[in-house]
Design a protein that fits this description.
With 132 residues, this protein is α+β, with helices and mostly antiparallel strands. The protein is 39% helix and 23% strand.
């Protein structure tokens, strides 16, 4: 009688711990990516978007992020509408990442649609006034 409850509790702890880890890794990664992006720096032989994606992937080495997971928007000074793209000097740049995490255990995953949970993280920072 107690064994199924203990198993459910144990597997829940494992799955929710992994979700928490992935969420924190994504939060840190998107913060590092936006910090890199607001400098205007570009890695050799890459576009600015590719450089930001690379910074995010470097900060989250245990997570595989496809290019489609990234969304870039920016807000121009004295404007109220977010525009697509990275933006330029003096703009507020936002990096958003949508990531789908598949739960480990069948016992817990049955409580989620397709056994997955969608995690969305974003970070916005003011770009430097001039890019070098």
């Amino acid at each position: 009688l107690i064994t199924p409850l203990l198993l459910l509790l144990t597997f829940s702890i494992v799955d929710f711990s992994s979700i928490f880890y992935v969420y924190l890794a994504l939060e840190n990664g998107v913060s590092q990516a936006s910090r890199f992006g607001v400098t205007g720096a570009v890695l050799p032989s890459m576009t600015r978007e590719e450089s930001i994606r690379s910074a995010m992937r470097t900060a989250t080495p245990t997570i595989t992020l496809p290019d489609a997971a990234f969304t870039f928007t920016h807000l121009r000074p004295r404007q109220s509408t977010w525009l697509t793209g990275i933006g330029g000097p003096g703009d507020v740049a936002k990096v958003r990442v949508n990531y789908t995490w598949t739960l480990f255990t069948p016992l817990v995953s049955q409580f989620f649609t397709n056994g997955q949970i969608n995690l969305q993280v974003e970070s916005a920072m003011l770009s430097e006034r001039s890019f070098n």
